[in-house]
Amino acid sequence: MTDLADDKGYHLSESVDVQSTTGDDWFVSQKGVEFAGTHLLLEFWEASQLSNETAIEQALVRAAEAAGAKVLDVRLHKFSPSGGVTGVLLLAESHISIHTWPERSYAAIDVFMCGDCDPHLSVPVLENIFRPGRMEVSEHKRGKVEHADSF
Amino acid sequence: MTDLADDKGYHLSESVDVQSTTGDDWFVSQKGVEFAGTHLLLEFWEASQLSNETAIEQALVRAAEAAGAKVLDVRLHKFSPSGGVTGVLLLAESHISIHTWPERSYAAIDVFMCGDCDPHLSVPVLENIFRPGRMEVSEHKRGKVEHADSF
Q1: B85 part of contact set with chain A, CB < 8 Å
Q2: Does A81 touch chain B (CB under 8 A)?
Q3: Is A99 a catalytic residue?
Q4: A63: part of which helix (H) or strand (E)?
Q5: Touching check for B134 and chain A: CB below 8 Å?
Q6: Do A88 and B94 touch (CB under 8 A)?
Q7: Widest CA span of chain A, in angstroms?
């Protein structure tokens, strides 16, 4: 896991110069690499608001908007007796999900986006609402095309 | 990325001897490691049925059942003109998601489960329906607790 968090500051790991390919092909091309989308796995520890469905929904929607994504649907479910919440935003550009474990002050958040969106822009929005004392972010390029001539 | 696929065969990467901790703590403990849940990232290439919403919904629900998970909600959305489909299952034990790029015969699938479920049991079900010519599976333990005495 690549930890992109640095002393609670957050740094973009690479250029956000995303260009969609043309025609009927919806993969993106970035610095000569072709892939389907960028998927961030976030681990928030010592976090707040993890049983608050209203705050969670607001966080996810704002995170999507900050990244330039279009929300198609929002689904949340709160569990009893733990108070944990599962939430998923379906986006025109993939999804954002959250699962919270309030008894551990922990949340697992995924921000998966394709197209011209920049999922890294979601991170400060999520941090601002959940206020993690510690976090880890790992980035995964999904559907990365391995060109034969790159070997 | 750890590639658990081996010549189209699929092998469990570790014991599925999952035990929930007791009381109000919903983290799991497996071989002395405490964590929130197991998250599989699947890359399916040269796959079929990627514009077929009925097949996709069936695949996700059967994958959840195979892993022992309880489905709370199913949401699917088909995109025009690409024919790509986004689908998410909310589970009592986290989620399964899929995003398809039919023009590339590619699907990005996530199987994230906590509790006593075994997400590895979802994989052959998904393979059987989408018939990928090539696949990659990476496993991520979410919310892994780093104990001070393990250093």
Answers
A1: no
A2: yes
A3: yes
A4: helix A53-67
A5: no
A6: no
A7: 55
pLDDT, mean over chain B? 85
Describe chain B by its helix, strand, coil percentages, rounded to 5. 20, 40, 40
Q: What is the C-alpha R_g of chain A?
A: 16
Evaluate if residue B114 carries a pLDDT over 90. Answer: yes
Among B25, B39, B75, the residue with its CB nearest the CB of A103 is B25
* Closest by Cα among B40, B81, B107 to A37: B107
Q: How far is CA A65 from CA A53, A77, A79, B80, B84, in A?
A: 18, 22, 27, 22, 22
ipTM, 2 decimals? Answer: 0.84
What tokens appear for B134 in the block? 């090539």
Confidence of residue B29 (pLDDT cuts 50, 70, 90): confident
Q: Do A108 and B142 lie within an 8 Å CB cutoff?
A: yes
B41 touches chain A (CB under 8 A): yes
Binary contact (B36, A101; C-beta < 8 A)? yes
Query: What count of other Cβ atoms lies within 10 Å of the Cβ of residue A130?
Result: 24
Percent over 90 (pLDDT), chain A:
72
First to last CA, chain A: 24
Best of B97, B111, B138, B145 to mutate (most A CBs within 10 Å, chain A): B97
Question: Which are the contacts of A108, defined by CB distance < 8 A and separation ≥ 6?
Answer: A41, A42, A43, A44, A98, A99, B36, B37, B39, B94, B112, B142, B143
pTM metric for this prediction: 0.84
- Residue A25's pLDDT band, with cuts at 50, 70 and 90, is confident
